[in-house]
Amino acid sequence: MPPGFSTHLGEWHLLTWTFLAVLVPVLLTLWCSVQRSKRAVLMKEVFRKSKHDWRYTDLFSKPTYCCVCCQHVLRGAFCDCCGVCADERCLRRADRALPCKEVVAPARDDGSLAHHWVRGNVPLCSYCAVCKQQCGTQPKLCDLRCIWCQTVVHDDCKPNLEDEGRCDLGEFRTLIIPPHYLHHINKLRRRHPDEYCKLAALCGSGWTPVLVLANTRSGNNMAEALLGEFRMLLNPVQVFDLTKMPPGRALQLCTLLPPGSVRVLVCGGDGTVGWVLDAIDTMKLKGQEVFIPRVTILPLGTGNDLSNSLGWGAGYAGEIPVEQVLRNILDAEVVSMDRWKVQVASKGYYFRKPKVLSMNNYFSVGPDALMALNFHAHREKTPSFFSSRIINKAVYFLYGTKDCLVQECKDLDKRIELELDGERVNLPSLEGIIVCNIGYWGGGCRLWEGMGDEPCPLDDGLLEVVGVYGSFHCAQIQVKLANPVRLGQAHTVRLVLKSSRMPMQVDGEPWAQGPCTITITHKTQALMLYHSAEQTDDEEDDSSWCCADVRV
């Protein structure tokens, strides 16, 4: 053996083992990545063709048991309509063997609906309808839940259930559109409101179905999870994602329901509510006024001033369950709310059609509109950054602080003229003018009432007009250290911008406007739902959804 051979051999062995130690994990990682990609493609294909509304899940995001193999789901999917869960290996079998909620189906021979049982993964703290003991306590796939009435029973107690298999749709039967109602609608030869009223008798007295319209891009991005919870409690045909279906199409379901019975829950910010109310106005133009629904709000936006004015709170962050949200809707009172037409006629463009906007909350020109304009421009550039209500308000604060130093809107009184019901108003030295239709502004601040508790009517046909001295004055108003300048009330408001460009906004939608004439006149009234809750002035910022129900 040549001298040094054993040394070279040892070096080659070390090099080989080092190479294998590096290469093998890399190859295994690549192989696992390819397999994971293949499985993801197969799951997407199942999702696309399935009647279930599958969503990805794993052991860490939502611990569940597979409804096929009864093992823990390490990586798989769950249906947010019926609650069926399946591991990725069992997904195809679950899709074939386990039916989802049928949105349209005939009733039984006696006219009732049969229970639709799903085994396992029952909600936490649920109790058996027979023995009244807690369900789902064993570490395995056990116990049953009806996905329509939400009744939960133990496996052993199910034979003792004394309802003969009839499902009464549970606590929210007056809000649910039963599948047999839609089945009867499909069989009607003549679709007429009188026929819908006759069919409504099959759904029981006091039936007021609710449609859920959610904007998944609003505020704190909670709408996606809320859609799943509402699909579980209601008929999935009642729940709409506004990013996939505009409100005009979603509201056509109202035309298949008894006139005057429908309620619409809008999950989003004030802009989403305005979008839905505009779609309702379009229904009126189509001659569908008899089917107009009553509108209520689950506030998911940043400001939520309209929601606050109607008693639904300044923001929803999951502090109460979805079931309580539906109970609050059942107890709400119908009120009318004025809607206004904002017509913007630019100076020098006499042959151009004036810009026409709808207003529910307020119109403003000045520092608050400038903050909204800067915020809007920043959000358009980096939308992913604005995924939290706290971040949004922090950005507003930064732009407000900047305007305190720069004062871009100073000498507004020299650049604008204000008329209330045709009478010219002498303006003090202001930087902003706000025209209000509701009692709240700027994320929960009362403008017209100031420090008092006087209610602000929503249907009096009057607009309240106030002025602010600048961004710092706006901040003082929001913390109740100052009051705005009251300029008056009017049925018609007219503003003339004589020179330069100024920031303006209507219900949080901002733009920069050159010389123009702005006329605000009454447009129509919307039917809204008002929630009354006992609360103190200091507690009302975010507490409306947390308070106990009070029947109005």
From TrEMBL:
<feature type="domain" description="Phorbol-ester/DAG-type">
    <location>
        <begin position="51"/>
        <end position="100"/>
    </location>
</feature>
<dbReference type="GO" id="GO:0008270">
    <property type="term" value="F:zinc ion binding"/>
</dbReference>
<keyword id="KW-0677">Repeat</keyword>
<keyword id="KW-0418">Kinase</keyword>
<keyword id="KW-0472">Membrane</keyword>
<dbReference type="InterPro" id="IPR017438">
    <property type="entry name" value="ATP-NAD_kinase_N"/>
</dbReference>
<keyword id="KW-0808">Transferase</keyword>
<dbReference type="GO" id="GO:0005737">
    <property type="term" value="C:cytoplasm"/>
</dbReference>
<dbReference type="InterPro" id="IPR046349">
    <property type="entry name" value="C1-like_sf"/>
</dbReference>
<comment type="pathway">
    <text>Lipid metabolism; glycerolipid metabolism.</text>
</comment>
<feature type="domain" description="DAGKc">
    <location>
        <begin position="205"/>
        <end position="346"/>
    </location>
</feature>
<dbReference type="Pfam" id="PF00609">
    <property type="entry name" value="DAGK_acc"/>
</dbReference>
<keyword id="KW-1133">Transmembrane helix</keyword>
<dbReference type="InterPro" id="IPR037607">
    <property type="entry name" value="DGK"/>
</dbReference>
<dbReference type="InterPro" id="IPR001206">
    <property type="entry name" value="Diacylglycerol_kinase_cat_dom"/>
</dbReference>
<keyword id="KW-0479">Metal-binding</keyword>
<dbReference type="InterPro" id="IPR000756">
    <property type="entry name" value="Diacylglycerol_kin_accessory"/>
</dbReference>
<comment type="pathway">
    <text>Glycerolipid metabolism.</text>
</comment>
<keyword id="KW-0963">Cytoplasm</keyword>
<keyword id="KW-0863">Zinc-finger</keyword>
<keyword id="KW-0443">Lipid metabolism</keyword>
<protein>
    <recommendedName>
        <fullName>Diacylglycerol kinase</fullName>
        <ecNumber>2.7.1.107</ecNumber>
    </recommendedName>
</protein>
<dbReference type="Pfam" id="PF00781">
    <property type="entry name" value="DAGK_cat"/>
</dbReference>
<feature type="domain" description="Phorbol-ester/DAG-type">
    <location>
        <begin position="114"/>
        <end position="167"/>
    </location>
</feature>
<dbReference type="InterPro" id="IPR002219">
    <property type="entry name" value="PKC_DAG/PE"/>
</dbReference>
<comment type="function">
    <text>Membrane-bound diacylglycerol kinase that converts diacylglycerol/DAG into phosphatidic acid/phosphatidate/PA and regulates the respective levels of these two bioactive lipids. Thereby, acts as a central switch between the signaling pathways activated by these second messengers with different cellular targets and opposite effects in numerous biological processes. Also plays an important role in the biosynthesis of complex lipids.</text>
</comment>
<dbReference type="GO" id="GO:0016020">
    <property type="term" value="C:membrane"/>
</dbReference>
<keyword id="KW-0812">Transmembrane</keyword>
<keyword id="KW-0547">Nucleotide-binding</keyword>
<keyword id="KW-0067">ATP-binding</keyword>
<dbReference type="GO" id="GO:0007200">
    <property type="term" value="P:phospholipase C-activating G protein-coupled receptor signaling pathway"/>
</dbReference>
<dbReference type="GO" id="GO:0004143">
    <property type="term" value="F:ATP-dependent diacylglycerol kinase activity"/>
</dbReference>
<keyword id="KW-0862">Zinc</keyword>
<dbReference type="GO" id="GO:0005524">
    <property type="term" value="F:ATP binding"/>
</dbReference>
<dbReference type="GO" id="GO:0046474">
    <property type="term" value="P:glycerophospholipid biosynthetic process"/>
</dbReference>
<comment type="similarity">
    <text>Belongs to the eukaryotic diacylglycerol kinase family.</text>
</comment>
<dbReference type="InterPro" id="IPR016064">
    <property type="entry name" value="NAD/diacylglycerol_kinase_sf"/>
</dbReference>
<feature type="transmembrane region" description="Helical">
    <location>
        <begin position="12"/>
        <end position="34"/>
    </location>
</feature>
